[in-house]
Each structure stands twice: as C-alpha cells, then as structure tokens.
Amino acid sequence: MADALFVVLRKIALSLGEEVLEKIGKEVVQVAPIMTDFEHSMKQIEGELSILQAFIGQVSAQRVSDKVFDAWLDQVRDVAHEVEDIIDEHAYLTAQVVDTGSFFKRKFHQIKNFAAWQRLHSQISRVEARIQRLVEMRDRYGISVGELDRRNNLQLANQFSLSDSAYLTDNTEIVGNVDEIGRLTQWLLEEKQDRSLIAILGMGGLGKTTIASCVYKNKQMRTHFDCHAWVTVSQTYQIEELLREIVIQLIDPRANMASGFMTMSHKRLVEVIKTYLLDKKYFIVLDDIWDKDAWLFLNYAFVKNNYGSKVLITTRRKDVSSLAVDNYIIELKTLQSAESWELFCKKAFRASKDNICPENLRSLAEKIVAKCQGLPLAIATVGSTLSYRELDEQEWTFFYNQLSWQLAHNPELNWISSVLNMSLHELPCYLRSCFLYCSLYPEDYKIRRKRISMLWIAEGLVEERGDGATMEEVARNYLAELTRRSLLQVTERNAYGRARTFLMHDLVREVTSITAKREKFGIAYGGAGTAQVSNEACRLSIQRGALTLNSLGSSRLRSFIVFDTEVPCPWIHDILSRFRLLRVLCLRFVNIEQVPGVVTELYNLRYIDFSYTKVKMIPASFRKLVNLQVLDLRFTYVEELPLEITLLTNLRHLHVFVFHGFQQRSLNWLSATKIHGNICNLKNLQALQIVSANKDLVSQLGNLKFMRSLAIMEVRQSYIGELWNSLTKMPNLSRLVISACDMEEILDLKNLKPLPGLKFFQLSGKLETGVLPLIFYNFDKLTWLKIDWSGLKKDPISSLSHMLNLVDLRLNGTYCGEQLAFRAGWFPKLSYLQLSNMDNLNWIEIEDGTMMCLNQLELFGLGNLKVVPDGIKYIRTLHQMYLTDMPKEFLGSLQGNENPIVQHIHNIHIFESSDSEAVNNFCFVPYLSIVFMWGFEVETIWPDKDEFSDINCLHTPQSTGAHLALDSR
C-alpha cells in the first residue's frame, strides 16, 4: 500500500515541479507506514473499547464503597474515553479526506494532515501502554475484579432495603397512603380459599416496606393467620439463605437445630416448608424482590392449600408486580403537598410543641420539602437531619443550597442516595448509559419519548438487534424498561396508550447527576456553585447561567445541549469551535439567526436541533455532515432546503416548517418546506415533515421504504394518483398528513388502494362530491383522525362509525349540514372529540351507549348550536369540556334548566378567540388544539410550556385573561 501511494503521489508531483516532489517525498516516507498500519490499529482499538465498556458496565453495578477499586476503575473509564476519542478523531479526519473532492486532492489532504494522523498513531501507542499499566496496577495493589463476596453484598443490600422504612418505627408516625393501607388490609383479611399473591409497587423511598410492615404488625393479622414470616430478598439473594430464614421464623428453633436444617439443600428446605404449611393459613412477606426468578424458587415452598393464605411482595419493578393475580397490585405514588409538609414537620420540629415550623424558617422549609417531591424517605431523612441543627435561617439556607453536595457526602443522608442508587446499580450496561443521559435534563422536565430516543441513537447508546426492529423501536423498549423499574414515571400517553412523556423524580435526578459527573459521563450545568466545567466531561447540558462559565474547552464533548435561551450569538459561535468531535448539538429556542459556520466542520454530528430559532437558511456545506441522522428545523424561517441535503444518506428524521400565524379559515398557517433535488438517496428516512409537494417529489417518495411518518402539503389533484402509489410502497407508514394547496382545490380519493397500517391520519382540503370516499372504510387500525375543510354534505359520523379503534376524532369545517348523530355502540374507544367551524350545525344527537370512554369534548365556533346536546348526560366518563366562540344561547343553557346535563363534568372552560393576547402568546390551548394542532407528532411539533418555564411566550390559559366561567365543579 505504501509503495502504491508513493507512486501515485510521485506522478502528481512530477506535474507540479521538483520542489514539490522533494517535499512530498520526505513526508511520504514518514506517513506511508502510518497509513499502512492504521486500519489494523483502528480495528484493534475498537475491539479494546468494546471490552472496556463491557467491563465497566459489569463492575460498576457490583461495587459499593470500595475506594481503591473506585480509583482504579476511574482510570479504566478514562482510558475508555480516550479510546473513544481516538475512534471519533479517526472518523473526523477520514471525513475531511472524503470531503476533499478528487482522488489526488484526497491524497494531498492526507499529507496536509500528516501531523494529525501521526498524533493519532501516537495516541494509540499511549493507550496501549496505559492499559498495560492498569493491569500492573491491579496486581500491585491486589485489586480484585472477580466475583464479590456475595454474603457481604447480601448484607449490604439488605441494609439498604431496610432503610426504605428505617425512618418509621411507629405506625402512628405514618403519613399518607391511608387508602392504600386500607385496601391492602381488606385484601389480606378477605375470606378467599385460594392462596393470594399481593404486590406493592413503587420506586425506592416511597415507603413500600413501611406499609408492608404496618399491616404485618397489625394485631388482626396475628389472629387471622396461623403463622407468619418476613424475609428481605434484595438484589443478591441466595435461595438457600432465604429458605432457612423462613424456616427459622415459622418453625420452633429447637426443632430446627435437631433437624440439621443449616446443612440442608434448597430442595430439602422447600420440602420442609411445604410440609409445615400444608394445613396452615399463613401470611408471608417477601420484601424487596428484584426479579421474577426469586418468586419462581419460593413459589414451590408456599403450598396452595385452600386455607386462604396470603403472600405479600414489595418491588420496584412492574414485571415482578405482574405476578400478582386478580389485579392485587398497589402502586404507590409520592405524597401530596399537605402530607409532605406534615411528615417533614413531624421530623424536623419534633422537639417543638405540635411540630410547628417557626415563621422565620417557613419559606426555606417549604423549598426543602418541595425539593423532596413527595418522596417519604427523603422528606423524613432530611427532616430528621435538620432536627439536630439550630433553628437558624442562615444555617438552613446553607443546607438547602448545598443539598446536592449533602446527598453525595453527608453520612446522615447516605440512606437516600444509597436507596435510590440501588436501582441505578442494578441496571444492565445498555440501560445504565441511557438513564444517565436523562440526568442531563433540568428538574421537572418532561422527557419526550421521540426526542430522547433520537438522542440516544445519535450518541450510539442504542444497540442494533438485527431482528428487524428499528433502533427507534429498541429505544422505545429501553424507555418501557426504565418505566417498569420505577426509574421514570409516565406523565402523558398518546391516542393509543403509548407513553409520550416521562418524568424523572428530582432526587433521582440529583443522585444520578452525581454519578454521571463522577464517571465523566456528563454534566448538567445550572449556573450555581462553580463557574468551571471539567474538561473531561463527555456531555454537557447548560440549563442556565451560560455566560458565567469561565472554562469550557473539552475536546472530548459529544453532546452539547443548551436550555439557556439568553446566550448571545457570538458566544455560541465561539464555543462550538472547540467541539470537533461533537455528535449532538441542540440549540432549541436559542437566539440565533444563522447556522454557525463551524457546524459544517463537525463531521461526526448525528443530531442537530435548531428548532424555534430564527435561522433562515441551511448552507450547501451541510453536505459534509455525512453522519447526520436528525435535522430538526421546526418553527424556524427555513422555507427551502438546498440540493445537498439529499446527499445525507444516513438521515433518519427531517423536521422542518415555518409558522406564519393564526388563520382560522386557511390551510396555510404553516409553510411547507421545498426540497430541491432527488430525495431517492434518503433511503433511511423514517420521518419527513412538512414537505411541499411537486410532481417529481411525490413519485420519488416511493423509494423511501422505511418511512413511518409523512406530512406533505400543497398537494394538487394532479399529484394524488402518483402520491398514493408511492404511499402504498411504504410498508411501515403509520402517520400521514395530506393538505391541499388551497381551500378551493378539490381532491378526488376514489379508487385508491388501502393503507392498512395507518394509525394517524389528517386530511385537509375539499373532497369531490362532498362525501367521504370509500377508502375511509379501510382504515381499521386508525386511532387518530382529523378532517379539515372537506365540505361534506352528508353526515360523516355514520361513515366513520366502523372505526372501532378510534381514540381521537377532530372535525374542523368538515360538514356543511345541520345535524350530526352519534348512535349507541359507536366509537367504543373514543376519548377525545373536537367539533369546530361548522356554521350550519344546529343539532347534535347523542344516544345512550355511544362514546362510552369519552374524556374530553371541545366545541369551537359552532355559531348555530343554541342548546347543549341532551345526550351528554349519558357520557359519564366526560371530565373536560372546552367551549370556544360558542353562541350566548348555548352558554346560557349551561346555567339554566339544562344544567343537569353537564353536572357530572368536572371542568368546563369557556374562551373567546378574540383575546388576541392569548392567541399571540401561544397559550390559548383550546384554540390551538381545535384549529391548528396536528395530533400526529404533537409532541414533536408544538412546544411544551413545561420545557422552558422562563420563555415569555408560554403561559397557562388562566394567565391570558381568557374567561373561565365554570371550573372544578
């Protein structure tokens, strides 16, 4: 290879002159051996990285409080990071070479960057030497990395598990969970012959053990059952020890000694327990179960004798709780605000009469309680710690400001971090990194499924399983697993029940952030404490106070996420020049008007988010970003994309459109983006929104076989045939938005092939003949449907009634007639219904037995609807009703004789769209959702007011001045 390279370069140099030949000749002598061996070296170093990562993932979950081992492991992590740097630097240099044009130019570029290639070669040698030194260091200091002493680890795990209730020794001190304790007691005492398995589920620190202990010690239980036993299982249980502990508690100790049970095998122990329990009504608690296997072993010992015996398990994992039959599961939640305050005062001010908080400390105490977010363990432990301190405002302020440090270093608060960290240590390696990534978000941040999945994939944290599943589906499985382990809480679901947003408890985020920082995984900078960020951090999120950073020059950075919207453009431009190995760049809401020039030199970028910025143009130099997977340009000013975008063959998600403002009777409130060139090369594309239709593009779409989500606007009737032909070639298409070019364009959808996999569908534009086409009868899987301005002359409800899976239905300007009828048995799963802008509608008939799951009803601009539909009284599940621009007669009937029709509805909100301030501030929720909300991809199109609480344009509806006539009945 080296000789061939020399010959090629010599030929080039001959045409340039002898001086150039002499210079190149000298450099080739040096570079040729490096280039020859480099490919082999890179393969070796990549293999080394995979082994290092597997090793770190394995031992990180095993070791607790071993300072020598931790220091050594920290060095191993550092080597792993250095190896990753080498691999990414290699990708960076290779991309530069590829981007240089012709073959000859590429070879010159290799010579030009000779120093960089040589430096990389030296780095590989240094890493190999460091790995060898680590091996020697392990032997020198006797560091054990083999199997741990399981007995000691078991005792430690048991100690942590018991800490879940260590703060409560007296049942009179229990606060909250009254209903849960009552329900649990009822289940345990009910007369039922079958042996019952009951589960208490919840994250660490919620008081699962405390509640189980409360009922276990209840005198009724002592008399109701013949015998009792309590064993703590923990993460590192040994089945023989568990069985022996059960024998000790059930059977007379003297009999145990005589029978030699201490030397029995687990099979013999099972037989002993079964024989003893055969004719008894027993109550056994298995505390802190982490996997199903533990129950599978113990299940054989707990005989099913039809005496009404009970087994109670506590667990953090949903899959373990599913072992309980007949839905005997109690899922604990965090305490309410009043309960949290009561528990804190009991602990922090126990020396004072009636546990009253002094007025000078009340504000601080409330902040501390709020920080604990209803977690009983944290509230009680922090309260107990503060009870020994002076009731001094300055001391309490210092404690509050240093709470993160206290959690990591204060022995009095070790219980909190230990209990919460047990779930982190138990995670497999592939989940652990993903969970650590979640700690980069601000507190109380709603983590969106699609966004976090794309970030994980861009970072290389999601494995390719090779079973036909996409990495997005694997990432979704990761999130489900983190939820089942009670590490993330689902806060919102989409139309067909899939989790849409997640929340990480703030204290879980705190302890996880400490781990992420210690392991150099990533840092969440909050503008307080230190003005310096470690140069060894691999990921950085800036939540506030960006300009207070004095040092930020990590060449190791892979993710750079900015939540601070106040940063100036020059700062952004300057800072990005230091991150040459960056994979993730998120500048959402940042005040920039153009793409920083250095971005197109970041060859390793996989994820770019410029959404909600003032960026107007994407430069042609984006063609260099050959690794790019996600480009998010929603709510920018980018109206067209350059031809070069079609060269990004690794692109998986392309989101881009311009928002023009609110136009009630228009299809052009958003501007579709024009894409130049042939999109056939984008074969990995899974999501594309919102693209402007043209004759060539609609035919090219058929080449995108992996497409799952498509929004296309400015569609003309002449495009429909070719467009639909392309759609039928997308076997995975499940979300589709089609919008006509204007309000007058008539779309003919007759004789089109079905799209059997479609789940979300929005159609905007007039339909020929004013009747729903037959194709609507083939949408059997549809869960979400919106039809805009179709000009139908026939009641569409009967034509849609066969859609048994429909959960969300929105009809906006859809129907020109006067009456709509909902018959009994129709729409059995419908949860959300919008009816808007149908000027002639004066009567809505709702039969008893229709829409029996409806939760929210929105009526907007139905100017001729004078009375409340009487059938609403039949829909007992209806909890929310939004009324916008409705006639005075209609609103008056709510207070008149027809009021009983809606008395079961908890919240009725009344708005006027003439409130321009509300509309302009993006806070007029019903107005937005009825007229403009694209239910498909809601989580990716519209901003979440909880994401950025300091953004002026996002407020709650109440703050707009909109009239709220009836609320919380």
The residue fraction in helices comes out at: 25-40%
Q: How would you describe the shape?
A: globular
Number of domains: 6
User: How far apart are the first and last residues' alpha carbons, in Å?
Assistant: 81 Å
Keywords:
969 residues, alpha/beta, Rossmann fold, 18-stranded mixed β-sheet, 5-stranded parallel β-sheet, 32 helices, 32 strands, globular, disordered N terminus, disordered C terminus
Characterization of this structure:
By secondary structure, the protein is of the alpha/beta class. It has 6 domains: 2-140; 152-331, Rossmann fold; 337-417; 427-521, Arc Repressor Mutant, subunit A; 639-782; 788-969, no CATH class. The chain is 38% helix and 15% strand. The chain has 32 helices and 32 strands. The strands form 6 sheets. The protein has an 18-stranded mixed β-sheet that branches. Strands 2-3-4-1-5 form a 5-stranded parallel β-sheet, with helices on both faces. Strands 6-8-7 form a 3-stranded antiparallel β-sheet. Helix 7 (178-189) packs across helix 8. It is globular and about 90 Å long. Residues 440-510 form the Disease resistance protein winged helix domain.
